Every structure is written in structure tokens, then in C-alpha cells.
Amino acid sequence: MELEIKNLCVSVNNKKILNDFNLTIKKGEVHAIMGPNGTGKSTLSRVLLGDSNYCIDSGDIFLDHESILNLDTFLRARKGMFLCYQNPLSIDGITNSEFIRTALNEQLEKPIGLYDFIKQMEQNIDDLSMKQDMMHRNLNQGFSGGERKKNEVLQMKMLKPKFVIFDELDSGLDVDSLKIVCDNINEYLSENPDTSVLIITHYKRILDYIHPDYVHIMKNGTITGSGDLSLAQKIEKFGYDEAFATIPGEDNE
User: Fold this and answer.
1) Contacts of 66 (CB under 8 A, 6+ apart)
2) CA-CA distances (angstroms) from residue 136 to 73, 150, 151?
3) Which candidate, 1, 15, 16, 108, places its Cα nearest to that of 61?
4) First-to-final CA distance of the chain
5) Residue 245 pLDDT
6) What is the model's pLDDT at position 90?
7) What is the pLDDT of residue 237?
């Protein structure tokens, strides 16, 4: 699935967050966006999924060459978009399995059978080294930070999206859990090679597991430089200021 963002300007409470933002992610590509706090990275992820708290001042977002600006969040999800949240919400009274099965059936022509659903859930839970009782617990209720992140990846594996956004996936994960999560993501991408990915992160460590085709630096709501994995390595070694000072800005289109 191809995503194209053209000259996107976004504000919230009359404050501009994204400023003439341009980015193209082609089918099957993995892109990473890095940048300091407050540059608009998480805003971008929410805008892509249609968060109504943000105002689109100008520009457009295209999914497989069709504008999605006027589509509600659930319609964007039906088209194959998925956001792995930085801080997943907990919902009391809805079990994990109820939530995922309802979401899955919303995108299927025929509801999935209970046996097939449970079989898939159990296998994916095992793959993520989660406890089987996670299936019956209320959504993220009492989950640790790492369990919430694993649960987001569990949802991805069950829903099988075509365009995935990981917003600070590595936050809340210890080293072992990060490897498990990334192994599952890499396996999913290997089985679904047309899936496109946008990774939003502060740190290079997740990129050691999920190798991006392109790395972009974001500052003041726009992309100021692009490169390959070596750009993330330079950021880790010298910091963002050095990267901003030495890397020419070039939007990836």
C-alpha cells in the first residue's frame, strides 16, 4: 500500500504543528522518522488515522492515489491502515478477544468462526510470549507497558493491515521484549511483503531489528533530511544538532 503526503499543514488550538510536510512511502517500503520531542512526530501518526482534534489547514494525504482526508478513522482502518499507539488506552468491560474479534469482523465479508479465531489468537499470543489469559482480560486493563505494546502487535497480526504506523514502539519494552516484538513484526512483513511501514522513534535501537529503507529527520513539523540507516547511526553518535547542521534537507518523494 502506497502513502503520499503532499504539502500537509496541520494545527491544533491555532498552533501549527506540521508545516508543509511531504513524504512518500511506496508499497513494501519501511521508513523511519526520528526527531526531538515536540517536532510533530506523534501528531503525524494521529493525523494519518484521522484524529478530529487536529485541523488540516492545507495539503492532502493519498492512500493508493486516493485522498483519504474526508474519510473517518474506521474507514481508513478498513482500507488497511493501522496505528500501534505510543500509549495504548485501557477499556474496562471489553475483553481483549472481544475487541479484536469485533475489529476483525468489521473488515471481513463473512464473520470469522469462533474456533478459527481462538486458534489464531492462541498461536499469536504464544509467538509474542504472552500469557494465554491475556485473551480474556479487559483490554489493556492492568497491563504493564510492555504487555500493552505486545498487545498492539497482537492486534496487528490478527487484523493484517497493509500500512502500519509504529509510534514509539520501543518505549516500555525491555531488551528481550523488544526482540520478541520485532521478530514478530519482521515475520509479518516477510509473509506480507506489500505491507508498508512508518516507524516513529527517538532511538536507533529498534532500527537494529527492523531495518528501514529510508530514515528521515524531522524538526519543526517538517522533514529536514533523509538518508539510509547510517543517518540513524550518526544521530545516535553525534545527536540531532550535528545531524541538522551537516545533512542537507531533502524530502523523500
Assistant:
1) none
2) 26, 15, 12
3) 1
4) 15
5) 64
6) 87
7) 85
Torsion angles phi and psi, residue 18, rounded to 5: -105, 135
Least Cα distance to 163 among 201, 212, 213, 198 occurs for 198
CA–CA distance from 203 to each of 4, 16, 40, 126 (Å)?
A: 25, 25, 16, 28
Strand partners, 219: 222
pLDDT at 246 (0 to 100): 59
Q: Count other C-beta atoms under 10 Å from residue 210's C-beta.
A: 19
DSSP 87: S
Sequence-separated (6 or more) residues with CB below 8 Å from residue 7: 20, 21, 22, 58, 59, 60
CATH fold for domain 3-89+161-246 = Rossmann fold (3.40.50)
Instruction: Give the domain ranges of the chain.
Output: 3-89+161-246
* Distance separating alpha carbons of residues 245 and 249, to the nearest angstrom: 10
Residue 211 CB-density burial (10 A; 0-12 exposed, 13-18 middle, 19+ buried): exposed
Q: Consecutive 10-residue runs of the chain (253 residues): their mean pLDDT?
A: 97 93 97 91 94 95 96 94 89 93 92 95 96 91 89 96 95 91 97 97 91 94 92 86 59 41
- Alpha carbon 70 to its chain centroid, in Å, reads 21
Distance CA 61, CA 47 (A): 9
Neighbours of 26 (CB within 10 A): 14
